[in-house]
Amino acid sequence: MSPGLLALVAVAGGVGAGLRYVVDRMLAPRPGGFPRGILVVNITGSFALGLLTGLGTAVVAPDVLAVVGVGLLGGYTTFSTVSVETVLLAQRRRRGQAMANLLGTLVLAIAAAAAGLWTGGLLAPA
Question: Which structural domain range is residue 43 located in?
Fold first, then answer.
């Protein structure tokens, strides 16, 4: 990886983190509520990465995939926040919401990634 590409991936990661913050704040629950913003971020980010991957290198150049996939979407999505929010919900004795957050994120993000891969495969040239 060239230093320029590394710099672009890093900048894109920062932009992705900023986008995550904006989406999370737009959908912010009341204090202590269900973290729906992060759920939306992880689902949309999983779909977008699946779509990019499904399009393949005939459509998406490897360097673009690195900047957008690893950088932007890597900064946008977050497993660590899901983990912390799940533990906080459990500590507040909201175990049902904690399980819904954990399992909902897992199932919906994987389904979104699969849908993105499928869609990308349909859109990619044969």
Answer: 3-123
Identify whether the C-beta of residue 75 lies closer than 8 Å to the C-beta of residue 103: no
What's the total number of domains in the chain? 1
Enumerate residues 6+ apart whose C-beta is below 8 A from 9: 1, 66, 67, 70, 71
Task: Write down the pTM of the prediction.
Answer: 0.91
Q: Tens of pLDDT along 49-87?
A: 999 999 998 899 999 999 999 999 999 999 999 999 999
- Provide the CA 110 distance to its chain's centre, in angstroms: 11
> Quick count: other Cβ atoms within 10 Å of Cβ 120?
21
Say if CB 110 and CB 43 are below 8 A apart.
no
The C-alpha atoms of residue 92 and residue 64 are separated, in whole angstroms, by: 42
